[in-house]
Amino acid sequence: MNRIDLCLDKIIFVCLLLLFSIGIASAVCTDSDNGLNYYLKGSTNISRNMNSYCLFNDRCYNNYILKEYYCYNGNIRYIYFNCGTAGCSNGACAGSAQNICTPGALQEGTCNVCNSAGTAYLNKCTANQICSSGNCITPQVCTPGTTQSGQSAMSAMLQAHHIMLIAQNA
Questions:
Q1: Which residue in 10, 25, 89, 100 has the most C-beta neighbors within 10 A?
Q2: How far apart are CA 104 and CA 114, in angstroms?
Q3: Does 78 lie in the same domain as 155?
Q4: In a domain? residue 132
Q5: What share of the chain is helix, strand, coil (3-state, %, to 5)?
Q6: Are 149 and 67 in contact (CB under 8 A)?
Q7: Domain count for the chain
Q8: pLDDT, tens digit (0-9, with 9 covering 90-100), for 119-152
Q9: Where are the beta strands (DSSP E) in the chain?
Q10: Are 28 and 94 within one domain?
Q11: In whole angstroms, what is the distance from residue 92 CA to residue 90 CA?
Q12: Is residue 130 in some structural domain?
């Protein structure tokens, strides 16, 4: 990893810290090339209330390797992609899009599905879902002070304490 990449990794980290301080729940991640599209230079951005906080452009790591930014579970991520002999130029693989996947196929271990042209993987999860072991799930939202079953946290704690006391006296 070169110095520029180390610096960019630190910027992503600082950006995420900033998002936590302003309220990450209302932040939105967008990618102009719609995910993992190696043949089109894109910009990945996290914004809140129409204000941009983090912006990263796809770029060439060297003459053959592309650093492709994309959104994953509302955060900015990146991968390195080998453009092959055509090379990398101006933030995208040179030449025309090649078939890198079978249309409709899932990328192993992710929630990415191959587009209809077979040229890029796109995240299949909706904006309110997260990827968990290759499946899109809607996170459960709980009311503060309650358990997953809806029981008050205090009631659950007292019940557990009562059961523990019965077990100790048995």
A1: 100
A2: 5
A3: no
A4: no
A5: 25, 35, 40
A6: no
A7: 2
A8: 777 778 776 777 777 788 887 765 555 555 555 5
A9: 28-31, 36-37, 43-48, 51-57, 59-60, 65-72, 75-82, 88-89, 92-93, 112-114, 120-123, 130-132, 135-137
A10: yes
A11: 6
A12: no
